[in-house]
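Review form for a predicted model. The reviewer records the input and the model, then writes brief findings.
Reviewer: anonymous (R2)
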Amino acid sequence: MRKGAVSLLLAAASPFVMTGAGTADDLAAPEAKGAFSVDWSAEAIFAAGSNDFAPYYIASNNHGILTQSKDALLRVGASRAMSDSGHFSYGFGVDFLTGYTSTTDYYHYYPHATAEVPRPDGSFVVNPQHPSRIWLQQLYGEIRYRGVFLTVGMKQHSSALLDSRLSSGDLVESGNARPIPEVRVGFHDFQNIPFTNGWVQIQGEISYGKMTDNKWLRDHYNYYDSHLNQGALYTYKRCYFRTKPSERFSAVVGMQVGGFFGGETTWYLNGRHDGEKKFSKGFKQFFKMFLPTDGGLDYYSGSSLGSWDIKFRYRLNDGSRVMAYLQKPWEDGSGVGFLNGFDGVWGLEYKAARPGYISGAVIEYIDFTNQSGPIHWDPDDNPGTTIVNRAEGCDNYYYNHEYNAYANYGMAIGTPFMVSPIYNTDGYLQFAANRLRGFHIGIEGQINPAVSYRMLGGYRKSYGSASVPFLSPREDTSFMLEATWRPAKIDGLAVKAQFGLDHGSLLGDNTGGLLSLSYSGKLLFGGKDKTLRMIAGY
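Model under review:
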């Protein structure tokens, strides 16, 4: 199995041409003059790498945009963000990519020869695959009334608790995979709870969506072992409580949950069809997934996983912030009850009050080795048994025996620290290395007003999974250094350079670099002169 690669990215110049000039006042408050503004951006990406996939820190927490080692992509987008002021606001966005991406060889199993595949019975055949030559990354509309919002469509979401630029990744919704078409409703920001005088605030969201990676799954699956679900629905819930943020000390605590339900699952055993089952998408299932409970045999009508989250923040005299946080994963009742040992993401974070040589830093210890022990026995799953004691272990994070791995287009929806199924070129579409531990660091800062940097590094050691351990542990060390230049004389232009490497038996030995060029600005419609103007840089 070939794993890992390093990419060289080069972004070409923007296809947009300036049609007018703008002033600082235009950028600061265009709609105060009666104008309607839309943000736009364009980027062209060229990639070259040594193996099949982009290196870990280039691909991770990047919304599934770059997975292959060689790419020539053009990305164009336009959006309007919702305003935080006033009782009502709305926003929208569209974002697409097109171009060339390299091919990776996966494997299909064919129990019988066919006219299309004239091979010996019971053979694996090479199955070259690559991402679509054009795909829609985002398309959404949203509205806000007072403190409540509604979003419909595909919109990129990142962690609500962790720093997505510096962290290893959120356990439930990290921004590592492509967005899922959904309907999402919740509080636009933390809202004061009545009668607490602002000392306790609440923020929460709930969404239901439709998985769109059916073709990707069919094309990458080996049809030999495990199972494949088609047509599943996705759901996400979050509820956080926060103490008064204006105080020097503040805390956030809560839970988030993601999961799949519905669709039809087919099982394969040693290359043979081994059964199938169709799951309901009715209203009853929506309600069950809203508040998943242990309900006997019906419990597995959906796949739910989540994390207990807690974050403490202390503000220093100069306005800088120091934070400590924990994300505690769970897959069933044992994890919810904190019976999975030291498992979780344990982090420390620093945010400077103003840009400097170190503007932010994160260090994390990640451990997923306990998983509530190796044994799972639930008497509710075995009617008629006389063994009534429970041992709800073998959590097998991001796995469910009736649904697909917790991923979209092969990339983990949660943390990429557990190697995503896209790396399994043998066509096994589960997380093969989810029992692991390691550490991660992230640092960013500013050399001068025009040049900033970011550095990511980490080490991990995996033992496979509790049910299918590796014969010997596999390790990986990854590193990435990034520098970005925004020339003062060309508003909206950003030039970015990266150097990255992977070393070890988990992802392979890879080294590479990146150079990108992007351009962005605003379109102003209307205003006093009723004209259309384009303003670079915002």
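Findings: The longest strand covers residues 469-485.
Further findings: Residues 21 and 444 are 33 Å apart (CA to CA).
Recommendation: see findings above.
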